[in-house]
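Hello, quick one for you while I still have it in my head. A protein chain has come my way and I'm curious about its shape. Can you walk me through what the tokens say about the fold? No rush at all, and the record is pasted right below.
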Amino acid sequence: MAILGRFFNHKTPPTPVPDALQIGAQIVPLLLAHHPRARRYLLRLRPDGTARVTIPRHGTIAAGKDFALRNIGWLETQLHQLAARPKIPAVWQPGTEILFRGEPVRLETDAAGAICFGLERIKISAPSADLRPAIQKHLRQLAAQELPARVRELAAAHGVEVTCVSVRNQKTRWGSCSRRGTISLNWRLLQTPVTVRDYIILHELAHRRQMNHSEKFWQEVMRLCPDYLAAERWLKQHAKLLR
């Protein structure tokens, strides 16, 4: 979640300046970063618990830190909400719940020792104490089959030209779009509801008409996906379960 304004162009990442904030008994890392297309100061609490201030082109580091200090109460509320969100276990075992197509599903073993969740069944030749690598490999294979087909379906429906679609293990992005028309998607979209998956795809298709995060871009997103804010909220609320 963010307070005040938007972060406009994700194509040119700024160099952040590290600092810290004291919030109650907690020390919160603070990153202050200029962005040439930002129109105003923007404060976000990232999923890792770091506060980030985006500083507009003619802003200053000092004013950015002051902006964060004036919104300590908001940050404290966000920290409490972040701590209350469920976290995905580091090790996946039978009984662990994961997200699959937007729903929590429990990992189970059948009589033959295969791992089952939802309608999926994975044979594991060498059982391991951590099922996560095998399950994530299976999810990536499913994503590679399903996501490109959905991109081309939506692109055709909206008259958008796409040259190539790739599925990646992106750590900080749900998707990206190059000027040549290549769309890359995070395989973890397979864990999200179809409405959220489609929003990310439509977001990237909107970049084929506006290669920026300007007001015109967001107008295009609204045209393609009128309920996109609900999808963004879902992603923020479930960020810790999608790593």
The first strand starts at residue 2 and ends at 3. DSSP finds six helices and 13 strands in the chain.
